[in-house]
Amino acid sequence: MKNKTNALFLGLVWLIMAAGLCRTALFPKEICTEENRYANRLTRPTPTSYFDGSFQSGVEAALSDQAIGSGPARSGCNLVSSGINEALLSGLYEANPNRYIGLGGGLSSFGGYLVYDTRELKKMAPGLDRGAAEINAFVSANPEVPVYVYYIEKDTDINFETGEKPGLYGYLRDRLAVPPTHIAAFGIDSFEDYAGRFFRTDHHWDYRGSYQGYKEVLELLDGGMPLEPVGEITLDEPFSGSKAVESGGKGVRTEDFTAYRFEYPPMSVSVNGAPVGDYGAQEAWIRGEAAEGLSYGSFYGGDFGEVTFDTDSGGENLLVLGESHDNAIIKLLAANFGRTFSVDLRYYEVQTGKKFNLGEYVKANGIDKVLFIGSIGFYTSEDLILGD
Hints:
- The protein folds into three domains: 2-68, no CATH class; 75-115, no CATH class; 119-379, no CATH class.
- It has helices spanning 2-26, 47-51, 54-66, 70-95, 121-141, 168-173, 191-195, 207-221, 242-246, 282-287, 296-300, 330-334, 348-352, 358-365, 376-379; strands at 31-32, 37-38, 101-104, 107-110, 113-116, 147-152, 183-186, 231-234, 258-261, 268-271, 274-276, 306-310, 317-322, 339-343, 369-374.
- The protein has an eight-stranded mixed sheet with strand order 7-6-15-13-14-12-10-11. Strands 3-4-5 form a three-stranded antiparallel sheet.
- It has 15 helices and 15 strands.
């Protein structure tokens, strides 16, 4: 009987291993949802990768991500580990509410918020020079097209302990060949400013910050009267943002997700040229009918190469070049324009199969105004390339 039990157990183990190998090789999953990243997959071996060991390491990583049950196991392990770490650090947080408590990987805790390290101007200057040069080149070649720049300050732009700012926005502003009246910033001058406008566990602005940003951008663009909220709701599901994931605290470091409700005008939406029902799932979340886990992107809308909104109002056409911060306000902006085009240069060529050229894009789509919007990462990104 014992031998039969052992044989059955070994057979079950081999069956699970075989299923894991089959899935890894033939039906690999694309996303590792537990850690909010692309899952490792098997790659074709080469003599170089085999002999330097990288192929073997890749196989191990792929099996770890793809094997049946690996996701829940990893998620459970992270949850236990994060819970222990948080319990050990809780006393330190309470004793030092106005001090940076380093968590590693460029993240710290400050005043109950997960915050990034302050960026140094010396290190950011080359990227800002490059970004400004790209924008200036377009302005010089297309003087008839109004260009607007909105810079979003956040935790990277101020030291909360000292109140000192490295001057990243001012450095960029002084190098732009854009009329001063077409440049503005979402300013953060203290921890109180930051805490009232950003998530505790995520790197994006929250509903208060994004709505303030929307109104400031609309005023910058001279785009008319803003939509007013018709209500406010806090979702039932606890929210663990991107910083919680980075720190290994997903499911432990949580907060409420509160949002404004709006009555948007009718508009048609396309993503990378294909019509879709909507951008984001705000109403689905509010009704409790959302089909995926709660995240900033699943609520407001994800990062895509190109998203277009058409209100059929006959108003001006707006092009928005930015990153994920504009996800929360792009649909609001679209309500004030005829057609609104949102382009994320990180994904445009990969998702549309076309190289991006701002001059050609403006002419092809009858763009009346061009808006650049983002934080320090956007303006220093090597993806900020606007033409040949």
